Model the fold of this input.
Amino acid sequence: MTTPITAAGRQKGVMDSAAARRAAGPVSGQAAGQSASLAASQQAQATHPTSVKVALLAPLSGKSASLGQAMVNAAQLAVFDMGASAFELMPRDTKGTPDGAVQAARDALGSGANLLIGPLFAADVAAVKPVVRESGVNMLALSTDVSLADTGAFVMGFAPAPQVERVISYAAEKGIKRFAAILPAGPYGQLVGKTFEQAVYHVGGSIVATTSPDNLENVTAHKDEIEAIFMPLGGEMLHKTTAALAQAGFEAGRVHLLGTGLWDEAGVAAHDAFLVGGWYAAPEPQARESFMKAYAETYNQSAPRLATLAYDATALAAMIARNGGTYDIRSLCSPSGFAGLDGIFRLKADGEIERGLAVLEVAQGAARIADPSPNDFRGR
Done:
């Protein structure tokens, strides 16, 4: 799919919701400032009639084509909602492979792209980085692999380390001092495990035991000492582990369960009462839920969780274009940050992203906000 998407095709009524009002707008937003911004935007559009071109690199063919198309759909909603008249979104098919991503990036740059959004997968991002470096055009990658972050190569995904730090800090504020962890194998488990250790020591706590989901003996042996168990697990592995803990004699409500954004899925406790009352760090859900509703009404299907990344990246790009800005480091790395569907965020010069996260509590229905996310980055 290479047809450009412009704001001229805006659909009336799409996203007239809290999501649209918050999407990638500046964190500060007083009425006078908004009026001045509107005037500046109108003047910029009058003096800069040439379209700003932004490419979205996504897998539009191959096994991940449905995910890639969902990212394009979300980006299209952002273009319509932001109403940047001199803005052109150019979807490019990465085919879900590193070679395809490089070809897509080169094609986009050859077509005059001023900014690249995507690709999604870590291997694709790594392959495109040299192309970005050579071109001097910045990239908002939609991966969660923070090791790929670099000057000019921003990683927009949900980095796990801040989630760990946020939930451990909150648990400590509630008086919890003795922690255990059940960590998955692989790079993700190693990363969150290291962050968990540092976070616990930072709050003055102690680690009673650590283990893997396949061998819970080291945790069950210290059952009476543990106040909270950190479980950065998702899906079937999460539910198998909670069942094993219950069978080992752990009591729901007596030991606090802690998680990451892997728990941030609808109905996570629908068939797992042991999770009820657990805490995890993630963006507040309200703006995202408005977006999900609008997406379903527009496209007659549910949006995947990662669709909000494409929306926020595109909305940010459209807002900068609407205000007559360019995609340089100064514009992208505004110290005040931006407000998106997944809460406030700001890009850092080293390519990483900082997000304002809430702590959510698992419930039988929708998760409730135990500790809200910050409204701005003042003092941070």
